[in-house]
Each structure stands twice: as C-alpha cells, then as structure tokens.
Amino acid sequence: MSIQASVGFSEGVDPYAVGVNACQDALNSIEGKQADAAIVFASVAYDQQKVLDGIRSVSGDAVIMVGASTAGEIVTSGPLNRHSVAVMLIKSDTLRFFADIGKDVAAGPHAAGRAVAEAVKAKAGEPLKTFIMFPDILAGNGADIVRGVQESLGEHFPAVGGAAGDDFKFEKTYQYLNGTAYSGSVVGLGIAGDFKLGIGVKHGWLPVGLPRTVTKSSGSVLHELDGKPAIEIYEKYFGQEESKVLRTETLAKLAITYPLGMRIEGSEEMLIRDPISVDEHGSITCAAEIPVGSEIQMMVGSREEAVAVAKEAAQNALNQLEGSRPKAIIIFNCIARNKLLGEHSPEEIKAIQSVLGNDVPLIGFYTYGEQAPLGGEVRNIEQCKTAFHNETVVICVLAE
C-alpha cells in the first residue's frame, strides 16, 4: 500500500495561469502524472472560477477536487506572504475519496451539514474513516453545521476542517467542489480505506481572572454574564474609556490576544470563542455560539505559547500514527493566530515540521474557524467528539 502526496503553489496576475502553474507544480512530483484527489486553497484576490478552471485543465476531470478560499495559504515551505493558490495532489492505492456539497447554509446550517455528510456517505457505500469539511460560516452558525455532520456520521466520528476565508475582509467566502466555486455552502471530503489518521488540536490561550456564567445569550450573541452586560468582562480589565472605543469599533483586533474561553466537557483546554463586535447595549457578537449556563473567562495569548502548543499538537498527531511515517499534512489554522504571530508565523509551521518531518508534503490555510475532535482524540473513539473551534491550530496527518 502507498500514499503519494505533493504540493504546488503559484502567484501572479492571471488567475487561470496561476491555477495551471500551481497544479502543474504539484503534478510534477506525482508518479504517472495522475492523482486521485486535489485539495485547493486560494486567495479571493483571484477570480475563483478561473483559478479552478486552470487547475482542472491540468488535473483532469476525474480527480476529486475540494477546497476553499482563505485568509492566507500555507505550504511545505511555510506561510505564503502574497496572494497565491496552493494545491495538494494525493495518489494512493489504499485511499478512496468521496466528495459532495451541502448548499444554502443561510437557510439552515444544521441541514446543510447533514446534507453534505449524507451525500458523501451515500457515494462512499462503505465506512468512512474521516471527513474533511470546508464550511462558509459567514452564511450561518458553524457549530450548527458541525452538529449536522455529526447527526449523519455519528456523535464520535472523527471530522476535521476549516471555515473558508476571504483575506480578512469578512464579506464573502468560497467553497470548491470538482472544478466549481460555490458560496454559502459546506463542501465535504470523505476518506475511506486502509490508512492511519493522526489529529492534533491545540490553542495555547490561558484564562485570566475569575470565571463568569452566561446568563443570557442567543446563538452567537452573548448578552449577559452574571446578569450584567457582556462587555463588562472587558471593561474590568481595560477600563471604561477603552470600552467606549470597543463599543464603536470592532473587537476583532483585541480578540487576537484576548478572546473568550468556554469550559467544555471532554477538553483539557477551554474552547475559544472570538468576540467580533459589541452593540450599544453591551452585547457581544462572537464567531460561534456560547450557550446559556456556560462558564467563560477572558483568555490571554502569547507568541511563544502559540508556537509551543503547535509543536505539542503535532506530537499528539504523530503519536496516533503508531510508528508510521507521515505522508501528508493538512493544517487548519485560525487567522487570529497568524495575526498574533505576525512575522513570526513561519516559526509555528517549523515547530510542527520539526515533529512530523520537514520534507513531508504540507498544505494548509488560515481559517475563520476550525473543526476537530476535542483534544484531537481519535484513538479512544468513544471519547471523540468533533467541535467548532476558534483561534486553534488543527493538524490532520495521513499515513500508511
């Protein structure tokens, strides 16, 4: 049995040519110049459909293609500094790939998540070993999408993924399926066959201050903590003058270093939630839901800790491979981590590679949210529970 993977990337002005060059770059290292699956990540600076047309002209229509627009692309050499297109091609005589789409997330994120999982499962006709998703969380609740996938595949099924981005604009993202660019959807890739799977999940943010209880919330809007306006959790630490600025400007910049953390059963780390904005009543809109009754705290992050836990996540993924050598690495990494690390972002990827191998083909992107089992648990399947994360690095490793 064997797994071959190769990564190519390209940048430039002509979207079709950039797609062609990125795919050709990857194809040059694939035996027989024919792949079974392609994973594509691209900047929204390019015409999305033309990029995919260019890739398809090289890969051929028979190749299963999935992917998403991003807030930055990552390849084996590290994070790419310019707008680019990245392509991973995989060829294997032991892996089988099945892909489909759940449309209209805005009308029902739970239904869209269930629909894509059901469609992929039906195409497979055999047990899936993992499921990779690319949701549009600007169109609907990402946690609801995850619940829809779980409802179809099972509560303890190991799924991973990353929410599509648009270069930090938060306007419109795209999801790719077999040469077509969609928006407002969730694309899924099911993988079956004889292979080993490793998943690493860590964020490294640490709680500060006393925990607060959510006493009023609606979906992703956090209204009250301990019966008081949610914004007071920040006012206590930054003062009312600073909070006046927060009430008129976005919380997103502050969230890069000081997000919210939510305690959740089955996870050593708190589940991170990004605050995005605050209204005149002091209610905070977050990137994902925080249910009433949840215990939350303000969190603090550091560059050093972010790099350290990325290495830990990589080690956790490697341990799950039971001695097998990694053949392909797929990373879903929050854009907030990229903003926190700044010019030090390559250090995080190097830390991961120091564990998994500098020469192992690697592709990834900076996301608007990550999906993965809590703690990366896949060996004790009864404890595997996929969740929607923020400000977290998720590492998916395939091995023979």
Instruction: Give the termini distance in whole angstroms.
Output: 7 Å
Note the overall shape. globular
Radius of gyration: 20 Å
Tell me what portion of residues adopts beta-strand conformation. Answer: 35-45%
Q: How many helix segments?
A: 9
Please bin the fraction of helical residues.
25-40%
Q: Domain count, please report it.
A: 2
Mean pLDDT: 93
What is the SS-derived class? alpha+beta
Parts with pLDDT < 50 across at least 5 consecutive residues: none
The number of strands is 26
Question: Biggest sheet: strands, sense, closure?
Answer: 8 strands, antiparallel
What can you tell me about this protein's structure?
By secondary structure, this protein is of the alpha+beta class. The protein folds into two domains: 3-202 and 305-399, no CATH class; 206-300, no CATH class. The chain is 28% helix and 35% strand. It has nine helices and 26 strands. It has helices at residues 15-27, 48-59, 109-124, 142-153, 232-248, 252-255, 303-319, 335-341, 345-356, and strands spanning 3-10, 37-42, 64-69, 73-75, 78-79, 85-92, 95-102, 130-135, 159-162, 175-177, 180-182, 186-193, 196-202, 206-218, 221-225, 228-229, 260-262, 271-273, 275-278, 284-286, 295-300, 326-334, 362-367, 370-373, 386-389, 393-399. The strands form four sheets. Strands 14, 15, 16, 17, 18, 19, 20 and 21 form an eight-stranded antiparallel beta sheet that branches. A six-stranded mixed beta sheet has the order 1-6-2-3-10-11. The longest helix is centred in the middle third of the chain and has 17 residues, at 232-248. The protein is globular and about 65 Å long. The N and C termini lie close together (7 Å). The model has no long low-confidence stretch (mean pLDDT 93).
